[in-house]
């Protein structure tokens, strides 16, 4: 089955930098109409500056934690492209938290930014996808949603307990929404990553020079992947090649989740 997404319309959140930006660029290059959504308006203007006027791209700046902003994002998408076929929730917010004295406000913010926002936007977009399929009487494929998570969901980091909990909650939300939307022919999947060059990892590598060697040593494939490699996984999940795949969390981590951290240091 073809992986073509030519002419389909995608919304990508967190598209101002890092993983979200890589995914949005990749989908544009594969012929999709893409809405780059992020709260950083200046970053959005920079990342789309090199596109020709003929490129089917749209930028949307706003705080995705606000329901009205989500509604405006969907409206802007429909005004420009008349439909939405793909949603990639790539927005992430990372903040440390004391595992023994977690500030409730920090935990609530982690859950809101990394799970609740994506869930609400998915619900809103899914309703539109359902209406589109009904109008066109398309009973085979109504749309695809992908949530971006990290290995913290199954390998908790004590210093970022709130973020780890939020990632785990997001992955469970992915599975639950996949079941709920399957009768409507909307597929919902997740991508969990580690050892991939995200915006946050770039900052961490600058702050901790030895971190690169530690990550590589703990990754069986022995390197840090480019963000484009994760984008290719997202492309597969939103294409017809994955038409019978839903409720799955695909891990892109070079085998890191398989490695015993102690063994990795000894061998």
Automatic annotation (TrEMBL):
Lineage: Bacteria, Pseudomonadati, Pseudomonadota, Alphaproteobacteria, Rhodobacterales
Pfam families: adh_short_C2
InterPro entries with a match to the protein in the record: NAD(P)-bd_dom_sf, SDR_fam
Record's keyword terms, sorted: Oxidoreductase
Source organism (scientific name): Paracoccus spongiarum
Keyword Oxidoreductase: yes
Record's keyword annotation contains Oxidoreductase: yes
Protein name (Swiss-Prot/TrEMBL): SDR family oxidoreductase
Gene3D superfamilies, per the entry: NAD(P)-binding Rossmann-like Domain
Family the entry assigns: Belongs to the short-chain dehydrogenases/reductases (SDR) family.
Stored CDD domains: SDR_c (cd05233)
């Amino acid at each position: 089955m073809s992986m073509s997404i030519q002419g389909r319309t995608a919304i990508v959140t967190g598209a101002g930098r890092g993983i979200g930006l890589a995914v949005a660029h990749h989908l544009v290059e594969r012929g999709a109409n893409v809405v780059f959504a992020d709260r950083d308006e200046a970053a959005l203007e920079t990342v789309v500056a090199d596109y020709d006027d003929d490129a089917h791209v749209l930028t949307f700046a706003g705080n995705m934690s606000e329901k009205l902003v989500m509604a405006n994002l969907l409206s802007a998408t429909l005004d420009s492209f008349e439909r939405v076929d793909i949603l990639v929730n790539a927005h992430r917010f990372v903040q440390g938290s004391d595992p023994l004295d977690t500030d409730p406000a920090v935990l609530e913010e982690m859950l809101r930014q990394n799970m609740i926002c994506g869930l609400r936007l998915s619900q809103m977009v899914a309703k539109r996808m359902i209406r589109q399929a009904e109008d066109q009487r398309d009973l085979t494929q109504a749309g695809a949603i992908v949530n971006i998570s990290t290995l913290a969901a199954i390998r908790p980091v004590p210093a970022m307990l709130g973020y780890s909990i939020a990632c785990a909650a997001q992955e469970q939300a992915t599975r639950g929404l996949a079941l709920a939307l399957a009768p409507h022919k909307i597929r919902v999947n997740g991508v969990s990553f580690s050892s991939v060059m995200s915006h946050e990892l770039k900052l961490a590598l600058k702050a901790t020079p030895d971190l690169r060697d530690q990550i590589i040593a703990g990754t069986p494939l022995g390197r840090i992947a480019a963000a484009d490699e994760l984008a290719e996984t997202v492309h597969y999940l939103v294409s017809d090649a994955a038409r019978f795949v839903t409720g799955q969390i695909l891990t892109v981590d070079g085998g890191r989740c398989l490695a015993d951290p102690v063994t990795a240091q000894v061998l």
